[in-house]
Each structure stands twice: as C-alpha cells, then as structure tokens.
Design a protein that fits this description.
127 residues, mainly alpha, 434 Repressor (Amino-terminal Domain), 2 domains, elongated
Length: 127
C-alpha cells in the first residue's frame, strides 16, 4: 500500500463508504480505486486528486497533504545514481534489496533521518 492509498482508505473509513460507492460517485471503477489504494497503479492525476478532495470535502492543509502523499506514492520507483558517489549507489542497491524486510519502525527511522538531513537537523553522523 502507498502513503496515498493508506490516507484514502482512512478517509473512506471515516466517511463510512465502500470503494464501490466512492467509485460510483467519482465515475471510475472500483477496481481502479482498489489498485490506487493497494499501490498496484501509478499515482493519480491532478484532476483525480481534486475530485477526491472535493468528494471528502478537503480544503487547505488537508488537500495539500493528500497532494503531497500522492507525489510520494509511485509504487515502482527507479533511482538513478549515475554521476553520484559509490556510497549513493551502494545505498540505493542495498535499499532495493532489503526494503521488503524492514519493519515499520526502521522505515520510519530512515525517513526521519532523510527528512532531518534535508532540513539540516540530522542527529546521525556526517560522513
């Protein structure tokens, strides 16, 4: 499941609607919504995201959060390390090989470290 799919499922549960009901309201198939939720389909287009925001009555921050999650939810990611350091290539390959074995706590730690590094607040060692 993708972060976007997880959020969409949470919104559906809170509203008490099924995928089929939501699909009918949006004019798409239930199979399409299921594929989005489970990460078996690429990211939704901006028009679909806006329809979903409207369906759930999302505005401002909630709408922006759903858009952000959609951007981060491509289920098949390719990492191009051409021109980067050997360490970057090693990291990309190691992650590709082991991501399915990592527990949620470890994944969250990795995400937190990457985000902290982007903000200049990393607690980890600088190499």
């Amino acid at each position: 499941m993708t972060p976007y799919g997880e959020k969409m499922r949470s919104l559906r549960d809170a509203k008490g609607v099924t995928q089929k009901q939501m699909a009918q309201a949006l004019g798409v198939s239930g199979a399409y919504l299921s594929a989005l939720e489970h990460g078996n389909r690429g990211r939704p287009g901006s028009g679909m995201i806006m329809q979903i925001c409207d369906y759930f009555g999302l505005i401002w921050d909630d709408s922006e959060e759903l858009k952000r999650l959609a951007r981060l939810s491509h289920p098949r990611v390719t990492v191009d390390t051409a021109g980067l350091s050997a360490r970057a290539t090693e990291l990309a390959n190691e992650l590709a090989q082991t991501i399915g074995d990592l527990d949620d706590q470890t994944l969250q730690w990795i995400l937190d470290e990457i985000r902290a590094q982007k903000e200049g607040k990393s607690s980890g060692p600088a190499y």
